[in-house]
Automatic annotation (TrEMBL):
Belongs to the ammonia transporter channel (TC 1.A.11.2) family. The chain crosses the membrane at residues 18-39, 51-73, 93-111, 123-144, 164-185, 197-221, 233-255, 262-280, 286-304, 316-336, 348-372. Residues 19-396 form the Ammonium transporter AmtB-like domain. It comes from Enterovibrio gelatinilyticus. It is a multi-pass membrane protein. InterPro entries: Ammonium/urea_transptr, Ammonium_transpt_CS, NH4_transpt_AmtB-like_dom. It holds the Pfam family Ammonium_transp. Keywords: Ammonia transport, Membrane, Transmembrane, Transmembrane helix, Transport. This is Ammonium transporter. SUPFAM superfamilies: Ammonium transporter (SSF111352). It is found in: Membrane.
Length: 402
């Protein structure tokens, strides 16, 4: 009997390790989506830079999170022996891998906002600092219960802040950090002539669409495998993810008037919004959540570019920052039993938790990017910006006709 119990335990541990490993690989693959979404959106002379940034940011984010960020969030380090680290089939190591792919999404989000005019090395240093300190501070607050914030919310409002897969922890935080960086950088040269917006057309719609599809597919690992153990897997999360994606597609197609850029970002807006409550909502609630997000993205992207003159190249603040906020609030609405959800949430906790994430992200991002700007400068010279980041920084163009 003891041998049977031991075998079952080993099988369970190995199955959980494989489960979360597959999730980590799917989220890792999403970084290719970030890359091609940016490559397709920026002008041709900045395509190489987009690819290099996503890969470089991932590498430096992994180091920052391995040595500092994971310790800040979970009070865990990796200085034990390999024998200790590999206990339970190395589940804790793979859990780090999974969560690190989330952390590395923050610089990937920021990259799309600051495209075409940011220096390379200073921004890389800033991204590492964000992943080492700013992001894990809020991550630990929410997902590890640090500093008693969640306990206070539960005691005061009857439920802790609920963010199953990171609408606020990952996306809103990334989007609001990006807004700080975008504001400090300023607009691209030639983007506005007086009050008139000058269109900078996407360089490659097929690449943009490819990026959106890679992200969309990977999102099912992002959401479903946030359960982190095999016994926690839920078909409800999968179908809610699907329905929110569909809501985002339909809304962005209608509100965006068939624009391919809006259409391919619409499902991403829906997916950002459903992360928080994907384990609680009824699928119809998820559909509505995604539809609102898709419409919100189109409206806010247009508003920020035309009226506010915020030169957020990929619209990462509307997409991740605002739709992520909406997702945090939507979990407190459509997660309620009265609206078909599973319950166990409080709208007030969702509101306060969301506001906390926005404040920490924007203030933290402003401090980091201001410090780097004052010491090293984060804006390319006017000549380098005119020539494009590909030749100015990497000394090679994306394609050659030779």
């Amino acid at each position: 009997m003891e041998n049977i119990s031991s075998a079952i335990q080993t099988l369970t541990e190995s199955a959980n390790t494989l489960f979360i490993l597959m999730g980590a690989i799917m989220v890792l693959a999403m970084h290719a989506g970030f890359a091609f979404l940016e490559v397709g959106t920026v002008r041709h002379r900045n395509q190489v830079n987009a690819l290099v940034k996503i890969m470089s940011d991932f590498g430096f984010s992994a180091l920052a999170y391995f040595f500092i960020g994971y310790w800040v969030a979970y009070d865990t380090t990796f200085f034990s022996s390999a024998e200790t680290l590999s206990a339970n089939n190395g589940y804790e190591l793979v859990k780090f891998f999974f969560l690190m792919t989330f952390a590395a999404a923050i610089p990937a989000i920021i990259s799309g906002g600051v495209a075409e005019r940011a220096k390379f090395t200073p921004m890389l240093i800033a991204a590492a600092a964000i992943v080492a300190f700013v992001y894990p501070f809020f991550e630990g607050l929410i997902w590890n219960g640090n500093f008693g914030f969640q306990d206070w919310l539960e005691a005061t409002f009857g439920a802790a802040f609920h963010d199953f897969a990171g609408s606020v922890v990952v996306h809103a935080v990334g989007g609001w950090i990006a807004l700080a960086a975008v504001l400090i950088l300023g607009v691209r040269k030639g983007r506005y002539r007086g009050e008139r917006l000058i269109a900078f057309a996407p360089s490659n719609i097929p690449f943009l669409a490819l990026g959106a599809w890679i992200l969309t597919i990977g999102w099912f690992g992002f959401n479903v495998m946030s359960a982190q153990t095999l016994d926690g897997i839920s078909g409800l999360v999968a179908v809610n993810t699907l329905m929110a994606m569909v809501g985002g597609i339909v809304a962005s197609l209608i509100v965006g008037k068939n624009d391919p850029g809006f259409l391919h970002n619409g499902p991403l807006a829906g997916l950002v919004a459903v992360c928080a409550g994907s384990d609680l909502m009824h699928p119809i609630g998820a559909l509505f959540t995604g539809g609102v997000a898709g419409a919100l993205f189109v409206w806010l992207f247009t508003l920020t570019q035309n009226r506010f003159k915020i030169d957020d190249v990929l619209g990462v603040w509307p997409l991740h920052g605002v739709c992520g906020m909406w997702g945090g609030l939507a979990a407190g609405i459509f997660g309620l039993e009265a609206l078909g959800g599973l319950g166990g949430v409080s709208f007030m906790s969702q509101l306060i938790g969301t506001i906390a994430g926005v404040v920490i992200a924007f203030v933290g991002g402003w401090i980091v990017y201001t410090a780097v700007d004052k010491t090293a400068g984060i804006r390319m010279t006017e000549e380098d910006e005119y020539n494009g980041a590909d030749l100015a920084i990497h000394k090679i163009a994306a394609t050659s006709e030779d």
